[in-house]
Specification:
Layout lengths: L5 E5 L3 H12 L3 E6 L10 E5 L2 E4 L13 H4 L9 E3 L4 E5 L2 E5 L3 H12 L1 H25 L5 H8 L10 H9 L2 H8 L3 H11 L12 H5 L10 E3 L5 H12 L3 E4 L3 E7 L2 E7 L4 E3 L2 E4 L3 H8 L7 H8 L7 E8 L16 E4 L3 H12 L9 E4 L14 E8 L11 H19 L7 E7 L1 H8 L36 E3 L13 H14 L1 H12 L2
Parallel strand pairs: 1-2, 1-13, 2-9, 6-15, 13-19
Antiparallel strand pairs: 3-4, 5-8, 6-7, 10-11, 11-12, 14-17, 14-18, 15-16, 16-17
Helix pairs in contact: 1-10, 1-16, 3-4, 4-5, 7-8, 11-12, 16-17
Length: 528
Amino acid sequence: MTGSDRAIVVGAGHNGLVAACYLARAGLDVEVVERDTVVGGAVSTVERFPGYRMDRGSSAHIMVRHTGIVEDLDLTSVGLEYQDLDPWGFAPFGPDGIHFFVDLDRTCASIEQVCGSKDADAYRAFVLDWSARNLRVFEAFQGAPTMSHLGRTLWGVGKSTGLDGLELSRQFLTSADSLLDEHFDDERLKTALAWMGAQSGPPTHEVATADLVGWNTVMHLRPPGHPKGGSGMLSVALQRRLESYGGRVRLGDGAAAITTAGGRATGVLTDSGEHLPATVVVAGCHVLTTVDLLGDGAPGDLAERAHRSVRTGNGIGMVVRLGTTALPTYAAGTEETSRSMQLLAPSRQALRRAHGEYSAGLPPTEPAALAMTFSAFDDTIAPPGRHNVTVWGQWHPYALSNGEDWDAIREREGTKLVEAVDRAAPGFASTVEHMHVQTPLDLERELGLRNGQVMHVEMAFDQMFMWRPMPELAGYRLAGVDGLYLCGASTHPGGGVFGASGRSAARAVMSDRNPSVLSRVGRRVRRG
């Protein structure tokens, strides 16, 4: 094989698989190389304990459900079945609790019961305003972050409010906490929204985090979902769809190097020593891993500048996967509560304390936690009579400043997350039979997430849009190496279960190969 119509995708993460599907559907001979023995990377599911199918990374899928990718690739016909999280959020505060349903009326009724009618009315107005804004923002996420695309999609965002451009821009650039203070009175509502908004990583007291809270409003348009059988079923479905197009996935034999000659990519050398020739290489791995795979083929001083300027940060969090005899029981919970992401932060002050300790390189004294209980409605992920519970804890530093070692404190810190659930749902700790802890170091070792950063690159404002991961790499191409393309969480629009960067990278490939083909293929790519 000459490789003239061959594309090699490095990494079988969900973005890489999305890119592979679109390229294979466009007629290229596509092979995905993956060092792991399962597809999906951080969107994968494995058996941790007998009978327990546990997610290795992500669990709740939000962004991808708004892209149209699932429908465009018809992933339901190859086994993907999403189960809606509705309510999508529940925040317990002692005897009280706020449920966030897809239905806005039910949500406002829950808020009114806890916080009063003023905040319920304010929340309704906030959702109607910010969901409209974020439909436009989401459109900007669907293509390359060029000035023309961003200008076209973002022009006029929020104009229906009657506010002028300066005020609208101020609102987007303010901190999420300031935005919450402008709209709501009750600290319990503000805490719940702040904790949900902080899931991308930046704390809500930082500048330009307002839309991380504003984005929550789109979940009233379509809920998050969890694939039946585990998060990894999305990746399995993508593999099946790729294979239906004639593409292949090579597991257990990752990329040792991206080969180049004369300023263009020529293929991939695998760990087994086989060279796979290709005219197109799509790197779905971390951007710094991509640069390292180029070795001497990296143009100029790119490698040094990338390692200096691309911020992965000091991790973001850790997670425990629990096998239990029962679900958490909250004082204000209902039967519907178990379908939700359970937002276990007692106050915004507690969030700030946890982030302060993280900034100092210390494990949190009382971590902020988010619990998910999908076995309540999915009987395929836990044995009969048992439950599969995930608890995510945010702001756990990868590099510890106190001289401790993650391997030595793994169980202690994992137990803290169990205790965080127990404080909100007394008695939960006694139901835990199995605990698998994934520290920031474990996330790096198992999933290739540098510094344990689940978003690859910090989701700070100066590393988003046309600045992600660096201005010269923001268009899914690596200048100076023709035929090499980038996708994944390192690129626009960022981390989370999204798929948009994989589709946009495939679009960039087809545009460079044959603009007339793009006019035909691009319509199918953009249909979502």
